[in-house]
Amino acid sequence: MSHFWTLLEDEFGPTYAGSLARDHVLGALGNRTVLQALTDGEPPRAVWDALCEDMGVPEERRLGRSTRVARGAPGGQGR
To answer: pTM for this structure?
Structure first.
């Protein structure tokens, strides 16, 4: 689940990600918002895929940023 939120914020930014999660209705998931679908037990991967399809996120960006530095790694946060 945390990876889902990381992907969402990386792609759309922290502010817009929250708005999308609350307000964007996904027809592919029964006309539920992202939050409703997750609360109802939809797998995060299915929700992410439906959102990416709806928002036109290119395939090459659907697995996240390749530039992310792991926590504790040189150049990462939380050192």
So the answer is: 0.78
Q: Which long-range contacts (CB under 8 A, 24 or more apart) does 23-32 make?
A: 24/51, 24/54, 24/55, 26/50, 26/51, 26/54, 27/54, 28/53, 28/54
pLDDT value at residue 72: 62
For residue range 43-66, list pLDDT tens digits in order.
999 999 999 999 999 999 888 776
User: What is the spatial distance between Cα 73 and Cα 39, in angstroms, rounded to a whole number?
Assistant: 33
Look over the chain and give the mean of its residue pLDDT values, rounded to a whole number.
87
Cα separation, 11 vs 66, whole angstroms: 12
3-state secondary structure 10-37: HHHCHHHHHHHHHHCEEHHHCCEEHHHH
How far is Cα 60 from Cα 64, in angstroms, rounded to an integer?
Answer: 8
